[in-house]
Amino acid sequence: MGDFPVDTILALIGIVIPVAAFLWEFVIGGRRRLGYRVQMDTPVTGEVEAVFPGVLTQLRRDAGAHMRDLSIVLVRIENSGTSTIEAADYLAPVARVGLHLRFPQRRVVGMAVTELSDQDLADSLGPNSGIGVREDTGGHIGVIDLPKVPLNRGDHYKVLAILQRSEGSGEYPDPVLLGGIRRGRVTETRSRTGVSRVMLALMAFLVLVIVVQFVVTLVEPRPDPLDCASGKLTVVGSSAFEPVIRDAAAQYGKRCTGAEFVFDFAGTERGLDRVTEAGPDPSLITISDGAKGPGYPALLARPLALSMFTVIVHEDLGVTDLSAKQIDDLFQGRITRWSQIGGPDLPVVLVDRTPGSGTRTLFERRMLGGGRTERPHQSCTAIKDTAGTYCDVPVTKDMHKAVAEIPGAIGYSELAEARKADMRIVTVDGVAADRQRAIDRSYPFWGVEYAYSNGDLPGDSLAASFLHYLTADIGAEVLRAHGNEPCGSALIEPGRCDPNR
């Protein structure tokens, strides 16, 4: 539908029409309105009895009338508008008469005013008020002339008439109240026991507007927010941070429909190498579990989040806590059997990440004091049947698989992914892995995740927009949902995410 604002037009119609209907009904058309309602119109088949106490004695009767083929009519006259009706508001030219209650095919043989909503109305309906009975059009239409009665909002009075057929047969035509009101109208009203037709029509109209708006919303694509960017972005690097990036990209794609993401998480070192070799390319970034080191001078860092890591062990070991010294002794080869630290009599099998892994580098820095015993590469699959005590894996999911399958195994992993894989997580010196404990430094195994690009990113690029989204928009909540704290958060002290620190 192009740039035509259909949804805006429909919204305005949905507001204007009900407001206009209200103003017309209650302010313009219905502000001054005199209504009448026929509450009873029935033939008399037996003796005439008083419906209201004392009414029959008040009836003004035609002395010459033969009391046969009679009917009784009760009419309610009311102020059904929103403004007071004064005597001067009646438009009838006769000085005292304001309304004419007509009964086609019947003549009036008796009448009385039977009910007043306010006793002050009695002064306007007395014998000298102009109220009277007459016949019109050759005696075939009975008429009751009613005076110009002032009526406050909601006031009413009732007229009871005894009528005799003057011509015709069958059912009588309905009584009619004639007259005029200045800046208003005289109209027939009905007792409302349900929803009025006007209200039903208005409700149907509003439902129609809502349905049309819904259809337009489905058919017409919404424009992306102003801070969205389109294009294709390839993200490589850390397998530990892969689930976070995938979830955040999925949320970004829902919001910014012109964005396309490609992933290849083969490890931190491979990611850094790939971005370096590609040269300046705003459509390629890599994620690293820690600072890149001095070997990649062209790469520029953007801190993303404080991330949590944990030590994991084989389920059957029953180990739930290790001290920082025990972890260091295990990975340095000083503890070789679990029985040495209160565990079962099984050999310790160290599952490590391959050299170049950001998670491995972080583990060495945080938990091993920056150094370790060097060991040759061994496949975790190969040592299962050889009673080997060491192996290494390239990515996080392989770490989980090896530790879960090899008895006596110990390794390390990003916290959220270890929990998702249902790994046995151990506390360190009795302190559980927790974002707040990492922030206050009571838990030692944490790191900072960085995004690296080869040179500066253009401000309108998808990479720049996505990285901003990760730390300053809904993406920050994705980071927190995975147990990380976005860099720039008020909880993290200034400089904590500095890659050179």
Automatic annotation (TrEMBL):
Q: Does the keyword Signal apply?
A: yes
Task: List the transmembrane segments.
Answer: 6-27, 198-219
**From what superkingdom does this record's organism come?**
Bacteria
Going by the UniProt record, its keywords in alphabetical order are: Membrane, Signal, Transmembrane, Transmembrane helix
User: Which residue numbers delimit the PBP domain?
Assistant: 227-473
Record bears the keyword Repeat: no
Return the protein name.
Substrate-binding domain-containing protein
